[in-house]
Amino acid sequence: MSQAPKRLLVIDPDSRTRKVLAGLLKNEGYEPETARNLSEAIHKVPGSDFFCLVMDVDLPEMKGYKAVPVLKNLDPALKIIMTTRRNSKKLETRVRQEDIFYYFIKSFGNEELKLAVNSAFNQKKEDKAMSVYPKILVIDDDPDFRAAVTPILKSALYEVVTASSLEEGKMAILAEKPDLILLDIMMDSLFDGFSLCNDVKTSPEFQAVRETPVIFCSAVKELAGSRFQFKGDEQGLAGPDDYIDKPVKPEDLLARIKKLLKK
Fold this sequence. Notes:
alpha/beta, Rossmann fold, five-stranded parallel β-sheet
């Protein structure tokens, strides 16, 4: 039985970008078509078997986020990946108000885009009855990190919950019972991450989630040139299951998470 073609449409006003993205996706085994604007896309989508659209936010006729309802009206099942060259919090907030599958910032590199497209097509293969995906809790006081890592995790079909402080993190762990925790080391104090990790692994309060894997995420290496020197085990503190340096690489982060969730 032959496999159904993996067709998708790249909508971008820049001819070079269209060519690059089409070539990239073709090398991944997809069958991409391109359109330079919304008008061309509207003519291509009806009656097609496109499953996914990769669409730039700056279209000639209107902003891409305003085009989402137009395209969804033609085919409600379309998975739309919105792309942008220059991001801002205001733009991202507006884009995420629409029914999109993923928001991709071009400067992050094409590996992330490939992950997003792969995830869109993999979701097509998922059992429709399955509605529960592994839940990842991100505890970090840096809003930029939370905003950056959330779409990476969602691209791999994880449910994402976030907390911005030690206390919020504690409440979220107990309320959400996540399958894995991404935990910043330094928040209100230098040792918040170590303290919370130890509580999760040893405190009776967290008995129900004691086996939850914890990955430390830290920017210390980037800022200071070396990793955090505090030895938690020497202080009698239970340590994390893994440690990853910021800025995280999407494929590395997802591989580490996948490995821990399989245990």
